[in-house]
Amino acid sequence: MSDFLRGRAMRGVLAVLVLLALLPLVMDPFRLNLSGKYLAFAFVAVGIVLMWGYGGVLSLGQGIFFGLGGYMMAMFLKLEASAPDLPDFMSWSSVETLPLWWQPFHSLGWTLVLIALLPPLLAYLFSYAVFRKRVGGVYFAIVTLSLALTLTVLIVGQQGDTGGANGITDFRTILGRDIVGDSAKLVIYLAEAAVLGLTMILCVGLLHSRFGKVLIAIRDREDRVRFSGYNTAHIKAFVFALAALLSSVGGAFYALQVGMVSPNAVGVVASIEMVIYAAVGGRLSVAGAVVGALLVGLLKSYLSEAFPEVWLYFLGSLFIGVVAFMPQGLAGFALRLGTGR
Amino acid sequence: MNLATLSLLPRDERSVPVPAMSLSGDVVLGVEELTVSFDGFRAVDGISLNIHRNELRVIIGPNGAGKTTLLDMICGKTRPTAGSIRFKGRDLTRLPEHEIVRAGVGRKFQNPSVYEDLTVMENFEISIPGGQGVLGSLLFRRSADVRARIRAIAESVFLEALLDEKAGRLSHGQKQWLEIGMLLMQSPELLLLDEPVAGMSPREREQTGELLRRISQGKSVIVIEHDMDFVKQIASTVTVLHQGRVLSQGTADQVQADPRVIDVYLGH
After folding, report:
1. Is the sign of the CA dihedral B66, B72, B78, B82 positive or negative?
2. What pTM was estimated for this model as a whole?
3. From A229, which residue of chain B is nearest by alpha-carbon distance?
4. Separation between Cα atoms, residue B30 and residue B52, nearest integer Å
5. Cα(A144)–Cα(A120) distance, rounded to whole angstroms?
6. Secondary structure element (H or E) that encloses residue A36, with its range
7. How many other CB atoms are there within 10 angstroms of residue B160's CB atom?
8. Is A286 helix (H, G, I), strand (E, B) or coil?
9. How many whole angstroms separate alpha carbon A114 and alpha carbon A169?
10. How confident is the model over A247-286, as pLDDT tens digits?
11. d(CA A162, CA A183)
12. Is the Cβ pair B132, A229 closer than 8 Å?
C-alpha cells in the first residue's frame, strides 16, 4: 500500500519534471523568466508541504528565510557588480566602509555555504526553543508572522547597509558571466528546474521513510508521539529548519532570476502568499505544491495584465473556491478524478 | 466520611496486609508520598506504593480519586508537587516524557490514542524503540526482523489480519488493542493502562483479560479499571484510591468486603 503511494507521489514528481522541461519550448523568454521566478516560490511551497501538510507546523514567516537566501545571493552579486567600489546605495547613505557582515559575500563559495547553513541554523535554534516550551499551532504562526514583519522593518530601517526599501538591485553578472540575456535566463531556468527536481525526489523519499510517518503522527497526536519515545520538539524544529533551507535556496534563485531583491520578498504578504501556493497545489503533495506555485503565479501575471482593475478579485475567488471545495488542493482533486471517487 | 474514620486510614501501603504472592520479585516501581495540587486542590495526596516484577496491579476508585493523575505523574505527563517516583532506582520526576518511555515505561491512555491516518503496520513501526532521532527515522528500514516482530505482536493483540488497514477504520476495541500492541512494541518493563477494556464487548474483554495476564509475565502492569468482574479476572492485588489517597489494598474479594470501600462507593 505505501509502496503504491510512493509510486503515486513519484509519478506526480515525474509529471511535473516533464512539464518543467517542456516550458522552455512553448514559452517566450519573458514568460519563461516569469516561470523561473515562480519556481523560486515553489521551493518554499515544497517546504511548507513538509512542515505544514505533514508536520502540522504552520509558519506565516517563510519570507524570512526566502529573504535571507535572496539577500545573501544579491549581496554577492552586488559586490561583484560594484567592485572595486562600495555598492552604490552605501555611498548614497554616506557609508564609508563595507560593514563587517558583508565581508563573506566577496566569495561565491562562502555565499553558497551561508545560504545553505545560516537560515536552517537560525530556524532550528529559534523553533526548538519555542517547541520545547510546548508553544505551537496558531501561536507559532503568529510568532513567525511578527518575525517576518520585524525583519522587514529592520531591512528598511538600515538603508545604508541593506539598500532599504529599494532593496538591492542593478547587478548583471555572476563570476563575470551575463545573467540578464535570454540565453543566460534559459540556463538559470534549467539549473533551477534541475535543483527543484532533485529537491522534490528527496522530499518524496523523506516522506516515505519512518520520519515521514512520524511527522504525520505528530500532526495528528503530538502527545502520543512523545509517549512513543520521540522528542517531538526536536523533530518539529528539524522539519522547520528543512523548510527554511528550501526557502533560502528558493530566495537565492529568485535573486538570480529577477535581478533584484527587496523587503517585499521578506514581508508578511509574501509569506502568506507562499502558504497559499501550497494550499492551492495541495498541502499533502510535493508535486502539487510546485504546480500550485507556478499556476497561481502565472495566473496572477496574466490576470493583472488582462484585468488591471479587478484582477485581485479573481485571485481571491480562486482561493476561496479551493479552500471551500478542494481541501486537498489541486493534487487531491486530480487524485479524485483519477480514482473516480 | 468523617474525620474519625479518615484518621484510621493507612497513610502507607506498608501498614496494609499485602498478599504474599505479589511480594515475589524485586520492586520495579517505588512511589513515595506522591502529591500534586492544582490551584490548591490535592488531586493526589501522599500516595505511596510499590510495584514488583511480574505484578499486575489494578487501581480502582470513584471518579476524581486521582487514578489517572497518578499514572500521568508516573509517565511524566503531569509533574508532582512533592514526593518521588523511582523506577529501577531512577527518579522519573525530572525526566522528559520521551526519556521515561526510553527508560521502559509505556502508557496507554483512557481514550484510545492511535495514529488514525497511518496503517496499523505503520502505527507499530513508529513505536519500535531505537533510532527515534531524525537520522534514525530517516534511515529506518522495514527489515525482515522488524516485519516478523510486528507480525508477532499484531497476532498477540488480535490484529494480524488488519495490518494494512488505516487505524482510523478500526473499531473502538481494536483501537484499544492497537494501543496496547504499540506499547508492547516498545518492550517496556512497566505498562500503565488506563481503562483498557472500556467500550469492549464481553468477548473482547475476556480476550483482553487473557492478554493482560500474558503480558504481565516478565513485566509489571498497572491497570485502572471500574468493572469489578474484569478486575477479579485479572488482578492479584487491588489498590483502592479515594480523594487522592490509598483507601484500601488487598485481593479483589478483600477490598470488596472492606467496609470503608463499600462506604465510599455506596455511602455519603
Report:
1. positive
2. 0.90
3. B98
4. 9
5. 14
6. helix A29-48
7. 14
8. helix
9. 20
10. 999 999 999 999 999 999 898 989 999 999 999 999 999 9
11. 30
12. yes
H/E segment holding residue B82: strand B82-87
Check A227 against B101: CB less than 8 A apart: yes
Count of CB atoms within 10 A of residue A308's CB?
Answer: 8
Q: Cα–Cα distance between B60 and B12 in angstroms, integer?
A: 17
Between CA A224 and CA A232, with CA A227 as vertex, the angle to 5 degrees is: 75
Q: Is the peptide bond before A84 cis (omega within 30 degrees of 0)?
A: yes
Domains of chain B: 3-113+188-206+218-266 (3.40.50.300)
**Tens of pLDDT, residues A236-255:** 999 999 999 999 999 999 99
Q: Which range marks the domain in which residue A173 is found?
A: 2-339
Residue of B nearest to A242 (CA): B134
Task: Please list, in sequence order, all residues whose beta carbon lies within 8 angstroms of the beta carbon of residue A19, skipping any fewer than 6 positions away.
Answer: A291
Supply A19's cell numbers. Answer: 512539464
**Which residues in chain B are closer than 8 Å to A231, comparing Cβ atoms?**
96, 98, 132-133
Whether B102 and A229 lie within 8 Å, measured CB to CB: yes
Q: Alpha-carbon Rg of chain A, whole angstroms?
A: 20
Beta bridge partners of A261: A168
CA distances to A2, A190, A280, B102 from A128, rounded to whole Å, are 30, 36, 29, 21
User: What is the CATH number for A194?
Assistant: 1.10.3470
- The CA distances from residue B153 to B29, B116, B185, in Å, are 25, 19, 7
pLDDT digits (tens, 9 = 90+) for B164-194: 999 999 999 999 999 999 999 999 999 999 9
Q: Do A231 and B98 touch (CB under 8 A)?
A: yes
**B101, B116, B125: residue with CB nearest A229:** B101
CB-closest option in B97, B133, B164 to A226: B97
- Cα angle: B148, vertex B150, B154; to 5 degrees: 115
Complex-level ipTM: 0.86
